[in-house]
UniProtKB/TrEMBL annotation:
Pfam families: DUF2975 (PF11188). This is DUF2975 domain-containing protein. It comes from Secundilactobacillus malefermentans. Keywords: Membrane, Transmembrane, Transmembrane helix. The chain crosses the membrane at residues 12-36, 48-73, 93-117, 123-144.
Length: 162
């Protein structure tokens, strides 16, 4: 079991470092350079700042979800998967993905302004896809939480009858 969780932990670390490196560092710097260079010509400077803030908040929610997955992997290593300690991180992952969904739905007008100013409709499509991914993760986490809580209840009932 430790080999499998070790592989998953290494994958989580690599994925987290890649996200923080690309999204957390490069994109906001690029957006700020765009603000500084086109400040006199662009009338929607606030949209760039809003988009950078939206991206940064998404990275924070992602890292929070990764930390919760790490807690679940700890429970798997200790062979305590079907306990209440596993439901709490799944519930937190559900809330983090709901936050990402709501963030991108509320930030859709900002993405529209940036797409209109840059003549790049793909920005709106990317906003929609990230919101859809957040909604999918929210539903998946809710189903997993419900399934795990029913399995725990079933396990407790079986322990009482034996």
């Amino acid at each position: 079991m430790k080999k499998q969780t070790l592989f998953l932990r290494i994958a989580l670390i690599i994925l987290s470092l890649a996200i923080v490196g690309m999204v957390g560092g490069l994109i906001p710097v690029a957006i700020l350079i765009g603000i500084i260079s086109d400040w006199s010509q662009f009338t929607y400077q606030w949209a760039y700042i809003g988009l950078a803030l939206e991206i940064e908040l998404t990275v924070i929610a992602f890292l929070f979800a990764v930390s919760q997955v790490w807690l679940i992997l700890n429970q798997i290593e200790k062979r305590r998967v079907f306990t209440e300690l596993t439901i709490k991180p799944i519930k937190r992952i559900k809330y983090a993905s709901l936050f990402v969904f709501l963030l991108f739905v509320v930030g859709a007008p900002i993405a529209f302004f940036v797409a209109q100013a840059e003549d790049a409709p793909g920005i709106v499509l990317m906003d929609f896809l990230v919101a859809l991914a957040g909604a999918t993760m929210t539903v998946f986490s809710a189903v997993l939480q419900k399934l795990l809580s029913e399995a725990i209840t079933f396990k407790k009932e079986n322990e009482l009858t034996v």
